[in-house]
Amino acid sequence: MSATRAAAKAAPRNPNPLQPFIWTGVDKRGTKMKGESLGKNASLIKAELRKQGITPNMVRAKPKPLFGQAGKTISARDIAVFSRQLATMMQSGVPLVMSFEIISGGQQNPRMKAMLDDIRASIEGGSTLYEAIGKHPMQFDALYQNLVKAGESAGVLDTVLDTIANYKENIEALKGKIKKAMFYPIVVFAVAILVSAILLLFVVPQFEDVFKGFGADLPAFTQMLVDMSRFMTSYWWLLLLILIGSIFSFIQAKKRSRKFAHFLDRAILKVPVFGELMKNSAIARFARTLAVTFKAGVPLVEALDIVAGATGNIVYEQATLRIRDDVSVGYQLNTAMKQVDVFPHMVIQMAAIGEEAGALDDMLIKVAEFYEQEVNNAVDALSSLIEPMVMVFIGTLVGGMVIGMYLPIFKLASTLG
Prior knowledge:
With 417 residues, this protein is mostly helical. 73% of the residues lie in helices and 6% in strands. A three-stranded antiparallel β-sheet has the order 2-1-3, covered by helices on one side. The chain is flat and about 95 Å long.
């Protein structure tokens, strides 16, 4: 009997998952129609169409893409938008399965649509939303899953989904600010290097032919540019390989070496301006994520375990894990935060007031809002600071090379004069 129960438990709940079918047909007015529907087989799709007053002419399984699943990858932004849509529909009283059907029908990304259809099929097969999204851990992390689980257990899934949507939107906005701060100088630096390489590879050699006709020694700066041009012309492939290899090695080292990643994250916190920006960002993520999980009813120790991976910086991740360990043996949160020595006094005091008043989540939300505003201000200030510095950098690099190429001409003119 126990073996039978075990076998029944091991058997899949939904042995015939829903598949996408494309169809064409005619409605009662004779208007031709076409569409796409989910079903277990073509016969059931035809029956469903007839119920809707459509006479089907053709129903067949939707062909799969030739080279795997088409469409762009599912981004964090896609999940944030989906969370807001689902929260809105649930609060409006739309049933969960129908909500997924409506949201899936409006998707332009086939990967996102396929994932939502799979979640919908799992729910129709008897799974909870927590179990259904658990099959897609790359898109729905531990934080998302735990919040949904808490919402389902407490019977307030619509409220929790609204909280998740707000959280995702705020976090994505924060990430966008950080990317904006980093993107501009990186792109400008890359463009400057590219322009310099073009000058050395194609322009300087033309001037070198002119210089040879002068029959005089070149100025030291011009000679240095000519030597650099010759080296790049001969070994550009080696320099390109070194550049690609360095970037690849850096990325792999950061992924695979915990010590290297820790060194980078600690080092960036000490960089002027950028360090303060990253620090404020990590504190904002810590505060908002902890507030959201704690408000949803997740126990504090478990919430801290989830928060650790959401800070975006290994220094703050390790600090959060130490806080978790201290809280698990009876320390108050503010006392544990004081021990790790990475949080400003104001953050610790706000946590202490929140614990004392029984409103820790509200206090942490205020902390998050404050530091998110600090990030906004820092990005605006950084943009104003970087713009003139970038202009000076490009002017010095490119202008210096142009002057170096014209120095022999100036020298010759002064000699002739």
